[in-house]
Design a protein that fits this description.
The mean pLDDT is 93. The longest helix has 22 residues, at 294-315. The chain has helices at 21-32, 72-78, 97-100, 124-128, 159-172, 189-197, 214-226, 245-257, 274-283, 286-291, 294-315; strands at 8-13, 36-38, 49-53, 83-85, 108-109, 112-113, 132-133, 147-150, 175-178, 199-200, 205-207, 234-239, 261-266. It is 36% helix and 15% strand.
Length: 316
């Protein structure tokens, strides 16, 4: 009878701040085979197999002297046999079917994959295709945690499934974080009724990515308020992709008018102009967004910067 040879497997999480689901699946599969799995870089050269996952495109190639951030290129220079994947590296790299089928019960993951939208700035349609159901709460929950995090990209696009998920959350008394946000265009009285019933951790996140969504955003914010869902709805605002600065600023002004919270997401194509930085500094802090209009904020910001510089000069 042949002797079983245990492999040493190293998992590299390049940049994910949350538990990396693909790496967790690989960990579980290799442990089932009897392999020794680690994430300790001390085993970088001695490991028989090395897997890596990169989520953000900017971390694919080293383009700065930032020593705190790992880059895919750094690791590949040291070992060319690393199996690297992830949305920030190569969308064509997929987990083997037997690994993909594993459902780690770590209170974190997907109940649907894909999306009905085809946003040009989003990788989901290319990576995952059209929306489909892949599981439910019981495929993720460890029966101990009181909170689960859903990574579904557009769960509201499957209304019956969303209702099922909400019923499971209510039955088990679980709090949920819709980590990737909800599609504000798909809010209905029924969806709002469910959102008002379940326990929600942190914010319910929406997005206001296109100027032409203004009327819809206004209507849906009114619908949320009708069901008393969050006093200050939270919306991401993509800027610099295919819109002008004036269009970006106007969307933020609409959200300020509606007493919402906003968060500016600067696309990598955003012009490298200080006014985009100021726009984010204004909007991304709720108190400055609520207190000032953009022009006043810029004046206050420059005055405060001058005051601090003067104090430093006097104290030097």
């Amino acid at each position: 009878m042949p002797k079983f040879i245990e492999m040493k497997v190293l998992l590299l999480n390049i940049d994910s701040k949350l538990p990396n689901l693909a790496l967790r699946k690989l960990e579980m599969w290799h442990r089932q085979q009897g392999d020794n799995v680690t994430s300790d870089l001390i085993h970088f050269y001695s490991a028989d197999k090395v897997y890596g996952s990169c989520i953000l495109t900017r971390n694919k190639e080293r383009n700065s002297s930032n020593r705190k951030q790992s880059f895919v290129s750094d690791f590949l220079k040291l070992r060319s046999d690393i199996v690297m994947g992830g949305t920030g590296y190569d969308l064509s790299v997929k987990l083997p079917p037997e690994v993909e089928a594993i459902k780690p019960k770590i209170n974190y993951g997907f109940t649907t994959r894909g999306c009905i939208r085809n946003c040009p700035f989003c990788f989901v349609p290319k990576a995952e295709g059209n929306i489909r159901i892949v599981g439910d709460v019981y495929d993720l929950w460890d029966h101990q945690s009181r909170t689960i995090t859903l990574l579904d990209n557009n769960i509201l696009a499957v209304p019956e499934h969303f209702e099922k998920i909400c019923s499971q959350l209510i039955k088990e008394g679980l709090s949920v974080d819709f980590n990737q946000g909800l599609d504000i265009r798909l809010l209905t009285p029924k969806v709002c009724e469910l959102l008002a019933t379940i326990k929600i951790k942190s914010e319910i996140r929406f997005a206001f990515d296109y100027p032409e969504l203004e009327d819809i955003v206004r209507d849906k914010i009114a619908l949320l308020r009708q069901y008393r869902i969050r006093q200050h709805p939270f919306l991401y605002v993509l800027v610099g992709f295919n819109t002008t600065f004036e269009q970006d600023k106007h969307r933020l002004e609409v959200l300020k008018e509606l007493d919402c919270r906003a968060y500016v997401q600067r696309h990598e194509n955003t012009p490298k102009e200080k006014r985009y930085i100021r726009l984010a500094q204004w909007a991304n802090q709720f108190w400055t967004f609520a207190k000032y209009d953009f022009e006043t904020f810029c004046v206050v910001y420059e005055a405060e910067k001058y005051r601090r510089a003067t104090v430093r000069c006097l104290n030097s």
